[in-house]
Amino acid sequence: MSRKNKLTFLLMVLIGILIIGYSIRDVKLSVLIHDFFTLDPWWLLVAFICICVYLLVEGIITKVLVSNRVPNFTFKDALRVPLVEQLFNGITPFSSGGQPGQLVVMLQTGVDGGRASSVLLMKFVVYQAMIVVNFFISLVIGFHFVATKMQYLSLFVLFGFLIHFFVIVALLLVMYWPSFTKRLTKILFHPVKWFVKDQKYYQMQLTLFEKIDNLYEESVRIGRQPVLMVKVVLLTLVQLTFYYLIPYFIMLSLGYYNVNVFMVTSLHIMIVMIISLFPIPGGSGGAEFSFESLFGSFISSNSKLVLAMILWRILTYYFGMIVGAIALLVKPDKIDDTKKSSSTSG
């Protein structure tokens, strides 16, 4: 990890501590400590297992996609990919560092750059598509609750849905109509020319067109393997399900046994969508505010609400960054993908 990334990591931890400190300003520390020690540890363990399964399943997805073309790619290296993704998602605005971070990890193992890029793009497409599907279901179940209780948050929810929906439409255009996508991209990309030199502009445009070609070629290849595609889609649904269930098990650990699992899960899906709109790494500030706003209707005790928010943030944000930092230190298992990449179109 570079010096800049280390500083950003420490800064995000500091911001998190300050936000938590602000959140507990009206809560007696003795009450918060009492609530913590009266938690049901078994339900909290289930919540922890959920985030572990979430990461493990993404490792399996990476292994499935890469091993389909690179047989010697190990599960250890496959697991490093989502772990490092968690780290760089957590320290960059709009989680923009996740994709480059994954690419670097795969290149470290010896996977061909073009092949690695196309696999990551396909994984991203499926992940985004399943997020939109889950979010649409959550809108049907929980949007009325949000719109009734907190109208201002409902606007963020709808805006988040529209952004992710347009991302999926753009990706589908790339996958099934690349020629039109390139023409459209050229038009939309033209204003960039006003701010950069011609040489850099055309280089950026060329890189963008190469990514469009890579995704199209990968989609054609995957399209010829429907069983593989179905497997990745189902694994992604399982992965997201475990992630979205985390707040429900945290609430059970706090003694709230009568909560509706479908409503709680739906609200968590909406929170994740809201977080994606905040430019601050990890959605810090917006994530905590959204959680307290939405789950305050279920958790009557202010101290337990704050404790639930802290536990949720530790599991879904800080834990991923910590294991991602550790994963960076793990030495990859080197493979030779040069022969395979030269003989196989990618």
Automatic annotation (TrEMBL):
Membrane-protein topology: Multi-pass membrane protein
UniProt record similarity statement: Belongs to the LPG synthase family.
Residues of the signal peptide: none
EC number annotated for this UniProt entry: 2.3.2.3
Membrane-spanning ranges: 7-24, 44-66, 124-146, 152-177, 228-250, 262-284, 305-330
Name assigned to this protein: Phosphatidylglycerol lysyltransferase
Keywords: Antibiotic resistance, Cell membrane, Lipid metabolism, Membrane, Transferase, Transmembrane, Transmembrane helix
One annotated GO molecular function: phosphatidylglycerol lysyltransferase activity
Highest taxon of source: Bacteria
Keyword Transmembrane helix part of the UniProt annotation: yes
Subcellular location(s) per record: Cell membrane
GO CC entries: plasma membrane
Organism: Lentilactobacillus parafarraginis F0439
